[in-house]
Amino acid sequence: MEFSFTNTIEGNTVKTLLKQHGVSKRFLSHVKFDGGKILVNGMERNVLFPLQVDDVVTIITPVEEGTDLLIPEDIDPEVVFEDEHYLIVNKPAGRTSITGRLHPTGAMSNLVKGYIVRKKYEDQTVHIITRLDRDTSGLMLFAKHSLAHSLIVHPKYKESVTKRYYAIIYADEKLPKAGEINLPIGRVESSIIERRVSPDGKEARTSYEVVAEKNGLMQLDVVLHTGRTHQIRVHFSHLGHILVGDELYGGNHELIDRQALHCHHLQFIHPFTDELIDIELEMPEDMQKLMR
């Protein structure tokens, strides 16, 4: 693939121009060592080459063949958005986001790998941008090539990525109708999975609003401002508001057989078009049933 940038600032080098557009050092190393090229006005140059105003810098990216270690599966993911740079899918509850050593198949990464193989896309590497817990459903974002991945996680664009979740808890009149939880989260020492609120943990910030109340339950619309493992589940269970169905953090499966958590909204500024991508999903049937 080829991507071009026009220089508008006197004194820029190739490196500084690309940095201004969010291109990372790591991606430039990938181009340099994995078979790509950097051209200035059609001539191959290095990143320290000095630029004149209106010079055009073109990156020719290496073809990404992918790895044989990720096994493609013959099940299409539910695609809700796709262009040449990004793919957004609706993950069902019960599938992990990525494979593990003991579970090399069945993950969303396997499904997306199978999808891009069947589509015969030139770049065959799976780039996961946002993950979800196995029993959380909803929107997941993938990049379709390395530059798309590099740009969306760069600070210039990363702050535009917003995720909202529907969570269902047992109704409690003591819970304010809206609020913010700002409590650090760390590992439980005896577990590789479980997390807890801990003064030694990493910053974790969650805001929420109660959007419905019925059948002794509350439906919350939750925004993650940080991305800690199990953040929503840990924050609400710590305050005594366990998610319905969340066995790991004190709940049970009497009403639903997984934690009632669904990523319903995903938005970001598209690094290649500056368009606002804004995707919304309904709650899945098992969570809707709780609130009928």
TrEMBL record:
GO MF annotation terms: isomerase activity
PROSITE patterns: PSI_RLU
Catalysed conversion reaction: a uridine in RNA = a pseudouridine in RNA
Domain Pseudouridine synthase RsuA/RluA-like: 85-238
Pfam families with a match to the protein in the record: PseudoU_synth_2 (PF00849)
Alphabetized UniProt keyword annotations: Isomerase
CDD domains noted in UniProt: PseudoU_synth_RluA_like
EC number: 5.4.99.-
Top EC class of this enzyme: isomerase
Family membership noted in the UniProt record: Belongs to the pseudouridine synthase RluA family.
Physiological role: Responsible for synthesis of pseudouridine from uracil.
Xref: NCBIfam families: rluA_subfam (TIGR00005)
Protein name stated in the entry: Pseudouridine synthase
Organism: Lactococcus ileimucosae
Lineage: Bacteria, Bacillati, Bacillota, Bacilli, Lactobacillales
